Amino acid sequence: MQIINTCERIKECFRDGFSVDVWRKYANEISQMLSSKCEADAEGYNFENDIAPVLENALDVEKIDFVNRNFQAVINTLEQNITKLFDTDPDVNIILYLGLCNGAGWATTLDGNNCILLGIEKIIELNWGDESNMRALILHEMGHLWHKQNGNYNLLGFTKRRKSMEQLYCEGVAMVCEQILCGDEFYHQDKNGWLEWCRENECEIKKEFLRRLDEKADVSDFFGDWCSYNGYSDVGYFLGCRFVRYLMRTHTLKEIANMKYNFLNKAYTEYAGTVIELLRSEEYHRCSNIWNMKAQPLAEVWLEEIKSGNRLVFVYKINGEFIGEGALVLNTNDPDYTIPGKRVYVSRMIVKEKYRGRGIGSAILSFLIEKAEKMGFEEMTIGVDKDNKNALHMYQKYGFSEILFEGADENGEYFKLMKKLV
């Protein structure tokens, strides 16, 4: 793995502002292919209106130095992350450079070598220059490289439907790789409620994408920060990740990385036509108090189970609409939260505002307790704000009586409660 950081060269070359001729010389110092590659990619955009303002904003020494510092910090620890996916040091050049708005990250080839191009102008525009986002961006592109080395990354899309399907698939694999390397169910695109909106509208999103596949319609608004679907950009990254997670229920990630178009096409049609996973009959009773209040037939209740790192997330929906979720953390380094095989932690309890006060929180907590018992755990912990009397009363009702400790953070004082499981 070779690291090429051109931040100092950018400051030196463009201290008097941006010049296309100077940029071409700068780019070709990195690779004789780079300037023509970037210009060909940017052909469809108006330079003065679309590109020049982004470049002008990026040629700020303080902004460049900020990105530079965090890039170096990520590179210094990158090897610790990539060993979760790569058996050996990947053969790749990671290049931090000034492009022509060709993307914050671009997994490609230059001079016959695998490259990850990191466009500092887009990183600055998107506010992805902090260490967390920089790490996620690099690891996402590493996901593309892993897919290329282990499967069908360069599929040959020769129809509109096939190109759209393959873009969704490739970005989905890269997103799952990013989550494996970053830990947890992480999306670097999550800002201003992006992830919550995507989750709540997953049913609509996947059906709309299928409609466009069937009608050979454009899907470009699902991908890229410069466009949006219903006001949200990069929705295709969420959808691709969810589709790959759907496939992972029955296949390994390496098997998925080698899937052919015909199989993927059929599998996506099945995924888009399924309203997640129907609660099994023996689980109906767990939610009956909720749906009886709304006179909702039980067949309308759906539960999705997501395995993400050391977490299990359970998402509840009615007719595709998100209503709430709960999450279990199976293992941390803190025994006040979890002990492998013995103590499990409830890390997340959410009920959508318009559904609160209908017993949904109780039903989700009851389900989490039963799930933990079936998995063989002996104890369960949960955190609660001292001032949240309703939640505290509910947890005590379900047997969370032992106070492991009292703590405080920027949000106020809280209890850590523990319950013995059967």
Write the layout of secondary structure elements.
Layout: E1 2-5, H1 7-13, H2 20-30, H3 34-41, H4 47-58, H5 61-82, E2 93-97, E3 105-110, E4 113-119, H6 120-125, H7 131-150, H8 160-182, H9 194-200, H10 202-214, H11 235-247, H12 253-257, H13 261-272, H14 288-294, E5 301-308, E6 311-318, E7 321-329, E8 343-351, H15 360-374, E9 379-385, H16 389-397, E10 402-409, E11 412-420
Parallel strand pairs: 1-2, 2-4, 8-9
Antiparallel strand pairs: 3-4, 5-6, 6-7, 7-8, 9-11, 10-11
Helix pairs in contact: 5-7, 7-8, 8-11, 10-13
Report what the structure shows:
- The protein is an alpha/beta fold.
- The protein has three domains: 2-150, no CATH class; 160-272, no CATH class; 281-420, Aminopeptidase (3-Layer(aba) Sandwich).
- 45% of the residues lie in helices and 19% in strands.
- The chain is built from 16 helices and eleven strands.
- It has helices at residues 7-13, 20-30, 34-41, 47-58, 61-82, 120-125, 131-150, 160-182, 194-200, 202-214, 235-247, 253-257, 261-272, 288-294, 360-374, 389-397, and strands spanning 2-5, 93-97, 105-110, 113-119, 301-308, 311-318, 321-329, 343-351, 379-385, 402-409, 412-420.
- The protein has a seven-stranded mixed beta sheet with strand order 5-6-7-8-9-11-10, covered by helices on one side. It has a four-stranded mixed beta sheet with strand order 1-2-4-3.
- Helix 5 (61-82) packs across helix 7 (131-150).
- The longest helix is centred in the middle third of the chain and has 23 residues, at 160-182.
- The protein is globular, with a radius of gyration of 24 Å.
- The protein starts with a strand and ends with a strand.
